């Protein structure tokens, strides 16, 4: 782990060493291949990030890769001049492939690549970085004022405002760093040209004077080595320059570049249709390659008409919905909103909302024979039986702005999760014990993040024979929705839901409710306790036990989080049943030194108690825990950490920001009849 933390520093030291220490041809070939690989990875990263801050280390990577290329250039020059042009197989292969026996043509191709890299891509990226940095810095005061206004108006809290200020600061620093970092690429291009001429001229002179070869032999040897060396350095430089231009020209988006291009470039089918007919008209020009033109034109026309047909289908569905509303007696939209009271209806936010691309509409439309609504009803019933709350109705909408196969899950109007479904396929999940592999479209299961494949119906039986877990598309969507609801259950539980829950309890135990609320705890305080339980996956179905525990302890305990701990201990049978398996529970324990360190770091103020552990100790504990989770991941599906009662609440809060899926329990929350099996222990050593 320590080596991985210092790998960049070690790599930079090695790069400096390459400048001084002669490298053998075999090792130099390996370094060239690593250089090309890193360049390809950086280019792909710039295409898949949603905004520049997701790749904020790019300016530093630009410096490291430039230094790496220059170090390899120096090492290759040393070999070319001392080994009669023999500097490894990579350089020789690149040089021979480009020259093809013609030195002049080869040099011209090489110079064109250098000029394109230097004058077009690098200069453009440098200018864009300079302008972007200037605009970002000029816009900072206005953005800061907007954040302060939102904070003063109560639209955001202090933590959100602090995060936004940090993002603005990081964004300005990033573009400022990019403005300077592009100079590295520019200098690298100039250095490559100089090194290329040094290799060729100096190599030719050395070959004639010291080698005793003919001029023609020397020219062939050193031209291959020079052009090969130049190409090996310029190819990664071209990739890095393209990545530089890519990241400084990307606007903030909610998806990758590929998804943005497919969504925006193909959003107007008429453009593709007109382009196809324009290509067909070129066939009337004498001498034009008609077969090639017809192939491209046919592809454009087919794609254009196909997209237009799908858009018309989505529009027809929208028209059908509007017609249904009109038949129900809804007035014209303009007349309807003339009444200002109707505008307030627009301010209502659906608690749970799902939006679908047009290809997924038949999957959830009852008129198309879908059982999606029935599945939602079944899930709502099961969730109420398991967790003790009733989830609100799920609003379903179609969204033409989404990809055809994409769906989005929103909580209180904001997107929290999304996924893509292939309607005519099945999802084959890899459980880890396959007896064979099957061909399919690689993907990640949206609910649990399991590697999987989309397979056709004819491969379903074979996939099951190989050990895959095969799921139909509708089940994928329902499962994803259910897991999302479980994750955000504490946000879905409103005071109105609590009021309905208490009214139900009053039918059998009105005395208990009246005794606790508001004498022992306020209505809002009870909601906070229940939300604390739901946030960590503890069911609240046993409301009588919860209210009795609050009644017994609320008079002496004012801290709602501590009161929640007493409730958790009273629900030990529920907690034991939920996380035990076959009468035993496998856990990760904390060493006594770790617990002692946490206890000694507990501080208290007017608002309550909190953990004031220093960042170094926090990082060390979390790192050790992650090591333990990695070691036992085959033995336990959900990491469960067992602590003492005093430590549980603080350790759970600390772990939440690093590993939110982990479960933290205390000894007092487990039944005495359950067998506890410790599979790992977190220590400070």
TrEMBL record:
Gene: flhA
UniProt similarity note: Belongs to the FHIPEP (flagella/HR/invasion proteins export pore) family.
Bilayer topology annotation: Multi-pass membrane protein
Protein role: Required for formation of the rod structure of the flagellar apparatus. Together with FliI and FliH, may constitute the export apparatus of flagellin.
Gene3D superfamilies on file: FHIPEP family, domain 1, FHIPEP family, domain 3, FHIPEP family, domain 4
Identification of the protein by name: Flagellar biosynthesis protein FlhA
Alphabetical list of InterPro entries matching this protein: FHIPEP_1, FHIPEP_3, FHIPEP_4, FlhA, T3SS_FHIPEP
Compartment(s): Cell membrane
UniProt keyword terms in alphabetical order: Bacterial flagellum biogenesis, Bacterial flagellum protein export, Cell membrane, Cell projection, Cilium, Flagellum, Membrane, Protein transport, Transmembrane, Transmembrane helix, Transport
Domain of life of the organism encoding this protein: Bacteria
Segments crossing the lipid bilayer: 7-24, 30-49, 61-81, 101-120, 189-211, 231-253, 265-284
UniProt organism field: Caproiciproducens faecalis
């Amino acid at each position: 782990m320590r080596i991985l933390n210092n790998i960049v520093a070690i790599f930079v030291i090695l790069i400096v060493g390459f400048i001084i220490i002669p490298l053998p041809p075999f090792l130099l070939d390996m370094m060239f291949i690593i250089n090309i690989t890193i360049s390809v990875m950086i280019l792909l990263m710039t295409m898949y990030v949603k905004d520049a801050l997701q790749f904020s280390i790019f300016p530093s990577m630009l410096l490291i890769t430039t230094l790496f290329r220059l170090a390899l250039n120096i090492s290759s020059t040393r070999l070319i001049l001392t080994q009669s042009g023999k500097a490894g197989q990579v350089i020789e292969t690149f040089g021979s492939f480009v020259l093809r026996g013609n030195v002049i043509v080869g040099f011209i191709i090489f110079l064109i690549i250098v000029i394109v890299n230097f004058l077009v891509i690098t200069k453009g990226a440098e200018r864009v970085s300079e302008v972007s940095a200037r605009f970002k810095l000029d816009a900072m005061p206005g953005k800061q004022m907007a954040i302060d206004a939102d904070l003063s108006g109560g639209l955001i809290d202090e933590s959100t405002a602090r995060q936004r200020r940090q993002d603005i600061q990081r964004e300005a620093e990033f573009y400022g760093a990019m403005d300077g970092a592009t100079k590295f690429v520019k200098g690298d291009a100039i250095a490559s040209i100089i090194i290329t001429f040094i290799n060729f001229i100096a190599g030719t002179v050395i070959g004639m004077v010291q080698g005793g070869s003919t001029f023609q032999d020397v020219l062939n040897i050193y031209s291959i080595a020079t052009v090969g060396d130049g190409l090996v350095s310029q190819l990664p430089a071209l990739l890095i320059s393209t990545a530089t231009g890519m990241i400084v020209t990307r606007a903030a988006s909610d998806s990758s570049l590929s998804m943005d291009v497919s969504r925006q470039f193909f959003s107007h089918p008429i453009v593709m249709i007109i382009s196809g007919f324009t290509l067909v008209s070129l066939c009337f020009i004498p001498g034009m390659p008609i077969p090639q033109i017809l192939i491209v034109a046919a592809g454009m026309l087919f794609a254009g008409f196909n997209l237009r047909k799908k858009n018309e289908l989505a529009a027809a569905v929208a028209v059908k919905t509007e017609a249904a509303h009109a038949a129900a007696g809804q007035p014209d939209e303009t007349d309807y909103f003339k009444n200002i009271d109707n505008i307030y209806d627009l301010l209502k936010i659906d608690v749970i909302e799902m939006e679908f691309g047009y290809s997924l509409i038949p999957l959830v439309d009852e008129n198309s024979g879908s059982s999606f609504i029935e599945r939602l009803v079944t899930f709502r019933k099961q969730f109420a039986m398991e967790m003790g709350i009733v989830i609100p109705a799920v609003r379903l909408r179609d969204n033409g702005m989404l990809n055809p196969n994409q769906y989005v899950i929103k909580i209180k109007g904001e997107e929290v999760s999304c996924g893509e479904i292939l309607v005519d396929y099945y999802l084959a999940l890899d459980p880890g014990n396959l007896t064979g592999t099957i061909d399919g479209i690689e993907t990640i299961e949206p609910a649990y993040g399991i590697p999987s494949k989309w397979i056709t119906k004819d491969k379903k039986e074979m996939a099951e024979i190989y050990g895959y877990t095969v799921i139909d598309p509708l089940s994928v969507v329902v499962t994803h929705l259910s897991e999302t609801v479980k994750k955000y259950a504490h946000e879905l539980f409103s005071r109105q839901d609590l009021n309905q829950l208490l009214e139900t309890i009053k039918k059998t135990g009105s005395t208990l409710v009246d005794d606790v609320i508001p004498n022992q705890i306020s209505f809002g305080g009870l909601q906070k306790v229940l939300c604390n339980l739901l946030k960590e996956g503890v069911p609240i179905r046993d409301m009588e036990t919860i209210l009795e525990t609050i009644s017994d302890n609320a008079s002496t305990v004012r801290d709602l989080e501590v009161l929640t701990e007493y409730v958790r201990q009273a629900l030990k049978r529920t907690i034991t049943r939920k996380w035990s398996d076959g009468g035993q529970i496998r856990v990760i324990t904390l060493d006594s030194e770790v617990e002692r360190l946490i206890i000694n770091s507990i501080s208290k103020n007017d608002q309550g108690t909190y953990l004031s552990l220093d960042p170094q100790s926090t990082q060390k504990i979390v790192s050790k825990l992650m090591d333990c989770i990695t070691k036992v991941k085959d033995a336990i599906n959900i990491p469960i950490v067992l602590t003492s009662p005093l430590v549980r609440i603080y350790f759970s809060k600390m772990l939440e920001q690093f590993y939110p899926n982990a479960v933290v329990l205390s000894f007092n929350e487990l039944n005495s009849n359950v067998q506890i099996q410790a599979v790992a222990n977190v220590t400070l050593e």
